[in-house]
């Protein structure tokens, strides 16, 4: 990478850091390209050369927040992995990610702004929940094809598992009813979700795979 390319990359990273802080602290509506440019000490023209619109900048912030997680998730959801242990690891990783302070802040931001700015909800859904669900559905489809899970719509199966996983401490955190969960709370939520899922999608005439986290 040339010095010029490295400088441009560093500048882009700085823009994303400032934008992320502004979105989380002041909201999507109150964040402007002008205010971001002013904080960075440059012109709006320079900022627009990196991100032509606030929507594209918001998408870049979300990609930055999720790309490492999704790369790790892709590796975790190896098509050859055993169903129960893989789903337990998936659940733990998902809950640890979505109960982080930044993730909770982004979730609340999108929920608050999406009615006025539908593009915010659309960007968030595509880059975060939908991407995660698609990766999980592909793994579940492999299990169905191998006869380890009963045949069904893998997208619906993925949706069920994710909803169950997020129905405990994550939902409580979104509404401000609890502090960040302890490891044992995450483990209990995940064990419950995976157990329910495996009982529902056990192969015909077979027993659900053991889902013990121990």
Structure at a glance:
The chain is mainly alpha-helical. Helix content is about 70%, strand content about 0%.
Polypeptide structure, described:
The structure is a single chain. This protein has 214 residues and is mostly helical. The protein folds into two domains: 1-52, Orthogonal Bundle (Arc Repressor Mutant, subunit A), CATH 1.10.10.60; 54-201, Orthogonal Bundle (Tetracycline Repressor, domain 2), CATH 1.10.357.10. It contains eleven helices and no strands. It is elongated.
Averaged pLDDT, please?
A: 91
Query: What is the share of helical residues?
Result: over 70%
Name the overall outline. Answer: elongated
Main β-sheet: number of strands, strand sense, barrel status?
none
- Which CATH architecture of the largest domain would you pick? Orthogonal Bundle
Topology:
Blueprint: H1 3-26, H2 33-40, H3 44-50, H4 54-76, H5 83-98, H6 101-113, H7 118-127, H8 129-145, H9 154-165, H10 169-174, H11 183-200
List descriptors.
single chain, mainly alpha, elongated, 11 helices, Tetracycline Repressor, domain 2, 214 residues, Arc Repressor Mutant, subunit A, 72% helix
